[in-house]
Amino acid sequence: xxxxxxxxxxxxxxxxxxxxxxxxxxxxxxxxxxxxxxxxxxxxxxxxxxxxxxxxxxxxxxxxxxxxxxxxxxxxxxxxxxxxxxxxxxxxxxxxxxxxxxxxxxxxxxxxxxxxxxxxxxxxxxxxxxxxxxxxxxxxxxxxxxxxxxxxxxxxxxxxxxxxxxxxxxxxxxxxxxxxxxxxxxxxxxxxxxxxxxxxxxxxxxxxxxxxxxxxxxxxxxxxxxxxxxx
Length: 231
Prior knowledge:
The protein is α/β, with parallel strands linked by helices. It is built from ten helices and eight strands.
C-alpha cells in the first residue's frame, strides 16, 4: 500500500485506466509548473523541447500544442522525429544528424524560440541561449550532460534572456497541492476529452523491473515505461 498527501492527489480521468493514469503525475506536474508557470509559455509563442519522445517530452509537446503554442522538439532518430510530429510538434530535429541551433534559426526565420525546456545542461547551455529569441526563457530541469558550464553573459544581457529551473521532489505538500489544483482546472479537461494522453510504451510486472531498466537504458522507447503491481 502507498499513501500520498491528499492535496497532491487527482482523480483518475474517465478516459484512462489506472495503469495509464499512473503515467500522469510526474510528467504532468513537471511540465505544467515549468513550461506554463515558471516558463510562462503563452498561445502563439514558440517552444523547443529537448528529448521530445521522453515522458516529459511527449507530455510537453501535447500540452503546449493543445494550448496554442508552436512546438519544436529534438529527438535521436528519424522514427522519434516522426513520433514527435505525430504528437503535435510542427517540426522535430534529429540531433544526431542536425545542429538544433541552426535548425531552429531556419525554422523561425532567424528569430529563435520563446522558450526552451532542457533536460541536458552542460554543453547544451550556450547552444540553448543561441537558439532563444529576444526575451526568451530557458527552463532547466535536468543535468544529463553535466552540472556546470560557462555562460556567455553578453548574450544573456543583449537579448534580455531568462535562465531559470526547478526540481519537483523537494517542494512542500502545499506547493504540490497548488500544482495539482492547476492541473485539475487546466489540464484534466483536456485528458477527459482525449485531447492529450499519457504515452505508454510498454508495461512490465514488478518482477521484471530489471528488463524495464534495460529498455530505458537502450533509449529505444517512446513515452513512459510502467511497472505493474498485482493487488
